[in-house]
Specification:
Radius of gyration: 20 Å
Structural class: alpha+beta
Strand order of the largest sheet: 1-2-3-4
Strand content: 15-25%
Distance between the termini: 15 Å
CATH architecture of the largest domain: Beta Barrel
Order of helices and strands: HHEEEEEEEEH
Shape: globular
Number of strands: 8
Largest sheet: 4 strands, antiparallel
Length: about 210
């Protein structure tokens, strides 16, 4: 397991508290080698993170991960910003707040935003030892942390694709399924659908 610095643990707890998340860490995780009997205690740090740039208003947080440099990746829902709150993005602006942020925000240990990119909104994410970002949203997508470009994507069943669920044209859906099964027969491994969470086990080369 990764041992976070006290500052990052405090920051994560603060962010989880601000966003209304239930954030649980085992006592042994906080203090390696020591099995404490009491529940972990957190100190709220109102200075972390710092004010977001560009008048961003962070939406609901659905994923958190700490990378190899002890910086924090936050996956949020930009569309949680109400239309009435987005008047700062109008031309001309009619309010001082707010703007929708990118879905993925990279924050350093001091609380400053050091990177961001737009991505498919999901319900879970992780970061590997090389810094690549993985997001779960119907399937798993791998992104370049510097450019935000999609690097890889697990093949997924057609009914998990955008527009392929409820309300889809049955004839078009049947064509998609037939084309998909021609390329990926039913016994093909690693075909997923409806997958929303992702965790990496790099030593075991598992996901």
């Amino acid at each position: 397991m990764t041992n976070f610095t006290p500052r990052t643990r405090t920051a994560l707890a603060a962010l989880a508290g601000v966003c209304g998340l239930a954030f649980f860490v085992s006592p042994g995780y906080l203090t390696p080698g020591v099995q404490a009997q009491s529940a972990p205690r957190y100190i709220f740090d109102p200075t972390w993170p710092k004010t977001l740039p560009n008048k961003w208003k962070m939406g609901g947080v659905t994923g958190l991960a700490v990378d190899k440099d002890d910086n924090v990746w936050v996956l949020n829902r930009p569309n949680d910003t109400l239309d009435i709150e987005g008047h700062a993005g109008l031309n001309p602006p009619t309010a001082d707040c707010c703007r929708r942020p990118p879905a993925m925000i990279h924050i350093d240990k001091s609380g400053s935003v050091i990177g961001s990119f737009d991505a498919m909104q999901g319900h879970g994410m992780d970061v590997d030892s090389q810094g690549f970002v993985y997001i779960g949203s119907n399937t798993v997508r791998k992104y370049d942390p510097k450019t935000g470009q999609l690097v890889k994507e697990l093949a997924r069943v057609p009914d998990a694709q955008p527009g392929g669920g409820r309300g889809a044209n049955p004839a078009e859906q049947a064509k998609r399924v037939a084309a998909f099964r021609a390329k990926y027969p039913p016994d093909t491994p690693m075909i997923v659908g409806g997958l929303e969470e992702i965790r990496l086990d790099e030593p075991a080369r598992e996901m």
